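Quick bug: LysR family transcriptional regulator output formatted oddly.
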Amino acid sequence: MELRQLRYFVEVAEREHISEAAEHLHVAQSAVSRQISNLEEELGTALFERVGRNVKLTQIGKTFLEHSVAALKAIDFAVKQVEEYLDPAKGTIKIGFPTSLASYVLPTVISAFKKQYPNVQFHLRQGSYRYLIEAVKNRELNLAFLGPVPPNDESIHTSILFSEKVHALLPANHPLANLERINLSDLRKENFVLFPEGYILNKVAVDACKAAGFVPNVTTVGEDMDALKGLVAAGIGVTLLPESSLYDSTPRLTVKMAVENPAITRTVGVIYPTNRELGPSEQVFLKFIDSFFSRLNQFL
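Here's what came back:
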């Protein structure tokens, strides 16, 4: 059994079409068909069945696909480790991040790292809280930044980098806009604009309001940080956002307000899998961010 056969098999399985797989692989259709046939002959069973011009996996083909994908990921990772062992400063790191860390934390860290390690490449993927955790577990991502840091899980390592406050963002003409700080209960009669249910920052905001003795009246939701800021600026409602998402500047026509009683905080950190050893470039990056935030925390 050859690696080429496995790669051709996975490509055909994902596209369910031999000619499209061949086009994507930049090889002749006959070559793909021949390798699939050789693989089925070696295994002693059919992996595909024809459905019109397309092909569909057989039941045992679905099982073989699952293990083939895992095997190819493991082999690709092994090759990557050898390459990085020879030169850790020239590796590639796949990093996931949520929208709340996209505007300040992530670019600040990567920019600082690239000054010391200009030849390390990054593949960046923005995603939801749950997606990022699962993507790290199944090796789709090498590591991910998250806030708040998830609870203990045997499949992932967690490392807290810093803690930050969550602020209220109010329209500039709001009656409370001239205060230095507010109690969260002061917003009990307000309309809220939040991330949709299922988003971690929705849970952070709703749990904080419940701790203050009320359930927020969520009238509008948005899946993007800038969208929420824009809704507040338009006077649609108020929101609660992490401090780092407001570092660069407070959006026009809004006021950032410190919240107390209860004070709301969240942890921010990085997660990486427990079921494999980190590659040399990843180890260099983790060591760098640990040092970077340790120095930063001294001034906070």
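Actually, after a second look the formatting is fine. The chain has two domains: 3-84, 89-300. Closing.
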